[in-house]
Write a structure and sequence with these properties.
23% helix; globular; alpha+beta; D-amino Acid Aminotransferase, Chain A, domain 2; D-amino Acid Aminotransferase, Chain A, domain 1; 9-stranded mixed β-sheet; 6-stranded mixed beta barrel; 2 domains; binds pyridoxal-5'-phosphate; 8 helices
Length: 354
């Protein structure tokens, strides 16, 4: 049974589009004319609506504010020559949203609500999708508790929203990262596999300390022994070692990135060996010392493929080869970009045309 939602639309009286400089877009500061909102009351999603982008009102007693009962997603849309909107793997984001929702006691968002809401919103704000190379429309769905109750218990009322932001590149240069062996992002049994707000709030301080020392980001290690590599900031981390792609195997403290999965599928498609397994800090440092690790990069929707320039560990910076020499990461970055923009065939059926 497919339940369809009647989506009411309240158009903005005056588009802000003419005021946006698309040749000079920052990341995440510009929002489009409209946003989607849906309310969950009495066990059902209702009043799905698109309204002009703007502030919302929320109870000061909302558990989203007090206890972080809030999750989000991130995906991107591109525009092809025919003016159609191409969204990369939205059903995978929908599935992950619902995995996060389960962990945080938030209600499932039905596929129809997610996809119809997305389609209607994107159709309305289609002209906001940048067609400048390196730019795209970042899509941010999120879901939070809208109860008015400061006791700690599963909530009954919720809000689901989607906002859109035209964005330029996340990082403008290759990134400098350092291995974190004191602070923890996520631990076994925790919420690391969910895109839950609190995971990110708690990660800002350790990242800031690294930034004060000249790094862009951290490489998180496991929360128990700080011996195994997990992720880099809000990206999955991947390496090329002796012509194999190696990346930490998924567990409940690692976010299952859709970019990570896309890179793995591309590598296998090109007959490159892929190893998803534990990678110890010791193996990583040895591989950087003896140059058996030739490439390192972060993988995520916002940053796409972020080349890692150097990795700091115990006071030493280990440099990777120059970016021009990194065959795999350059090739996969380009190949994914061509698929996402509709410039190359899509053998995996990843692109959703709206
Ligand atoms: C979102 C996210 C990623 C990347 O996931 P994608 O689906 O590729 O965008 C990786 N790690 C963390 C912690 C994240 O929040």
């Amino acid at each position: 049974m497919v339940a369809t939602h009647k989506i009411s639309i309240h158009n903005t009286p005056a588009s802000r589009l003419p005021s946006v400089d698309f040749s000079n877009l920052p990341f995440g500061k510009v929002y489009t004319d409209h946003m989607l909102i849906a309310d969950y009351h009495h066990g059902a999603w209702q009043s799905v609506r698109i309204v002009p982008y703007g502030h919302i009102s929320i109870s000061p007693a909302s558990p989203a504010l007090h206890y972080g009962q809030s999750i989000f997603e991130g995906m991107k849309a591109y525009r092809n020559e025919r003016g159609e909107a191409l969204v990369f793997r939205p059903l995978d984001n929908w599935k992950r949203l619902n995995r996060s929702a389960e962990r945080m006691c938030l209600p499932e968002v039905p596929e129809e609500l997610f996809m119809q809401g997305l389609q209607t919103l994107i159709e309305l704000d289609r002209n906001w999708i940048p067609d400048v190379p390196g730019s795209s429309l970042y899509i941010r769905p999120f879901l939070f508790s809208a109860d008015e109750y400061i006791g700690i218990r599963p909530s009954e009322n919720f809000t689901f929203m989607i906002i859109l932001s035209p964005v330029g590149p996340y990082y403008s240069t290759p990134v400098k990262v350092c291995i974190e062996t004191h602070f923890t992002r996520a631990v076994r049994g925790g919420t690391g596999y969910a895109k839950a707000g609190g995971n990110y709030g708690g990660a800002i301080y350790p990242a800031k300390l690294a930034q004060d020392r000249g790094y862009h980001q951290l490489i998180w290690t496991d929360g128990i022994e700080h011996k195994y590599v997990e992720e880099s900031g809000t990206m999955n981390v991947m390496f090329v070692k002796e012509n194999s792609l190696i990346t930490p195997a998924l567990n409940d403290s690692i976010l299952a990135g859709i970019t990570r999965d896309s890179v793995i599928q591309m590598a296998r498609y090109w007959n490159m060996p892929v190893e998803e397994r534990k990678i110890s800090v010791e193996e990583l440092i040895n591989g950087l010392r003896d140059h058996s690790i030739t490439e390192a990069f972060g993988a995520g929707t916002a940053a796409t493929i972020a080349h890692i320039e150097l990795i700091g560990y115990e006071g030493t910076d280990y440099h990777l080869p120059p970016v021009e020499k990194r065959d795999f990461s350059n090739r996969v970055l380009l190949a994914l970009d061509e698929i996402k923009r509709g410039h190359a065939p899509d053998p995996f059926g990843w692109v959703h045309l709206f």
